[in-house]
Design brief:
heterodimer, A: 488 residues, Arc Repressor Mutant, subunit A, three-stranded antiparallel β-sheet, 17 strands, elongated, B: 95 residues, alpha+beta, Histone, subunit A, 3 helices, 3 strands
Chain lengths: 488, 95
């Protein structure tokens, strides 16, 4: 029997506010010693009163708008009760039946096919404390708690079960992260935990509307992990179905080292969260004026920017898509093409050339050093990259330019400085080449004779000798012309 | 409704509170009074009133996104039943 895969994703993204969701403690938990960004509110002391961070609500409205959601007129917070040591109050302040946004969508593209993926809801909640698991010398397991992360604004985005393959799931995440980064509401960094993803995955017979058993998968810490876990699950479920085993509704964890999912607790015993309205927080009535004011401030989003890159810079769709997926990469591209003089290069040619460098050599450096474009930018500014590209038209050749870029990245120096220090600039001046050419002619009588008797290949050899004598710096066209003239 | 001593101890346990005998008696009295007050409230006919968690007519209470100093770490950890270095220490809870 043929099955199709049904995937829905639940993403939690930390919002880039300065302060926490319900108190004024700094939300910058990653760079602080443990338990230093904590106050009675986020520590969950009795009797304290939370107050809603307006910026977090705005960021959530912004995101919901960018995802084509309807913004609720009336929204409120609810308590989700469960006992776990990372939850300081014994409940998490979340949103249950009145999320800020609902009923939206985003577009993804897989193998050139466009797919519209539904968004069920976008809501706001708070992050929990961080637990570090330890084992004492006596073998006793225990946990250490750092409360800094407790109360950091967390936005939850739930997709419809519209995804049909691991690759679609991956593309959805890439697109969603890209949108959040363009909005400037989250770093979207999955490895650092500011962008987390849980998945629901099931299979159903082709043409049926009844999935077998919904499996929730957790612990996926990278886009690659999501892809691999979905791929593993889709295969595992098909295999079980083929063997006539009964699939059960359960929660499974992705174990990266083993490359497989492992059953966690059974969903039958899932917690009863006993949601009830948060009595400490008055409800929010979101006026249409506020929504429209936020809508007017929405920045250009990835798809619009991609289309503009094609129209404005004459880039191919492929280049424009890759460049605009990351906002930081797209910004880098525009900063290097916009700010500078292109010298002799026509602007559209320069734009394509910058794109080639970014998607080629620069991306190679990013991958080799496991960094992102923002970190690269600290070493090599867009202006400096353009300076190097212009140098590669005349001053130095392409191979040299690549090695100069590597050195620019390592040392933070600019291209001209490296070219001058290493004496890399091309010699195109006939006066400078005169002596070398005379020497080469004198030292290679056989090749000279061959050339004079009509063997064109001998000229290449002589040019090669000039290049060798100048350590690759001679302009080969100029050298060839001079040799021909002298041997004529 | 009068609470029994056992009920008070049960509630105290859920709230992770240790009570002395005198406190049990005092709270039994106070909690019972509170419950009796709710019994009075329950006589009101609410057939056409939508449920609410809010007793006052406030809405849209928000603050600007500004950071204020947190408490010193020593104060945050001061009441910890168990700590290790800069952290709270608790028994392992693994699912």
């Amino acid at each position: 029997m043929d099955f199709e895969t049904i995937i829905g994703l639940e993403v939690h993204a930390q919002l880039l506010t300065r302060s926490k969701m319900f108190c004024r403690c700094s939300a910058d938990y990653a760079n602080a010693p443990p338990n230093t960004h904590v106050c009675p509110v986020c520590l969950g002391m009795p009797g304290v009163l939370p107050v809603i961070n307006r910026q977090a609500v705005e960021y959530t409205i912004m995101t919901a708008l960018a995802l084509n959601c309807t913004i609720s007129d009336y929204t409120k917070f609810d308590r989700k009760n469960y006992p776990y040591p990372d939850l300081m109050k014994g409940y998490q302040i979340s949103q249950y039946d009145a999320p800020i946004g609902r009923g939206g969508w985003l577009n993804i593209e897989v193998d050139g096919e466009k797919r519209k993926i539904g968004i069920i809801r976008v809501h706001l909640e708070e992050d929990v404390a961080k637990l570090l698991h330890r084992t004492s010398p006596e073998g006793e397991d225990y946990s250490l708690i750092d409360v800094n992360r407790s109360g950091v604004p967390l936005m939850e985005i739930v997709s419809e079960p519209d995804l049909r393959s691991p690759e679609e799931a991956r593309q959805y995440l890439i697109k969603l992260r890209s949108i959040l980064q363009y909005l400037g509401v989250s770093t979207g960094n999955m490895e650092e935990g500011s962008f987390r993803c849980d998945a629901n995955i099931s299979i159903r017979p082709q043409g049926s509307s009844e999935p077998l058993a919904k499996v929730e998968v957790k612990n996926m810490n990278s886009f690659k992990a999501v892809y691999q876990a979905m791929d593993y699950e889709a295969k595992r479920q098909r295999k079980a179905a083929a063997e006539g085993k009964k699939l059960i509704q359960e929660t499974r964890g992705w174990v990266e080292a083993k490359g497989k999912t492992v059953a966690q607790r059974s969903k039958e015993y899932a917690h009863d969260y006993r949601y009830f309205p948060e009595p400490d927080l008055p409800p929010l009535v979101i006026s249409r004026e506020w929504v429209e004011e936020i809508r007017a401030r929405l920045p250009e989003l990835p798809e619009a920017r991609r289309e503009r890159f094609i129209a404005e810079y004459g880039l191919p769709l492929y280049d424009a898509s890759l460049l605009t997926t990351s906002k930081a990469m797209a910004d880098y591209f525009e900063d290097s093409t916009k700010t500078a003089q292109f010298g002799k290069l026509p602007p559209d040619r320069a734009a394509k050339e910058v794109s080639n460098w970014l998607l080629g050599e620069v991306s190679r450096i990013l991958n080799a050093n496991d960094i992102d474009i923002s970190q690269f930018r600290e070493k090599v500014s867009p202006e400096r990259l353009l300076g190097l590209i212009l140098s590669s038209h005349g001053t130095i050749n392409l191979a040299t330019a690549k090695s100069v870029l590597e050195e620019m990245f390592q040392t933070g120096k600019d291209a001209q400085e490296i070219i001058a220090q290493r004496g890399l600039s091309q010699i195109s001046d006939a006066g400078e080449l005169e002596d070398i050419i005379t020497q080469v002619i004198g030292a290679n009588p056989q090749a000279v004779a061959d050339f004079k008797s009509g063997k064109e290949a001998a000229l290449k050899f002589l040019v090669g000798q000039v290049m060798r004598a100048t350590k690759g710096r001679a302009n080969p066209q100029v050298a060839a012309e001079m040799l021909k003239r002298k041997l004529a | 409704m009068r609470l029994t001593r056992e009920e008070v101890l049960h509630i105290a346990r859920l709230a992770r509170l240790g009570l002395t005998e005198a406190e049990v008696e005092k709270l039994r009295e106070q909690l019972s009074n509170i419950l009796e007050n709710f019994e009075v409230l329950q006589q009101v006919d609410t057939t056409d009133v939508p449920p609410t968690a809010q007793a006052i007519d406030l809405q849209n209470v928000m603050r600007s996104d500004e950071v204020a100093p947190s408490l010193p770490q020593s104060q945050i950890l001061a009441n910890a039943p168990r700590r290790e270095g800069e952290y709270f220490r608790v028994r392992a809870v693994l699912e």
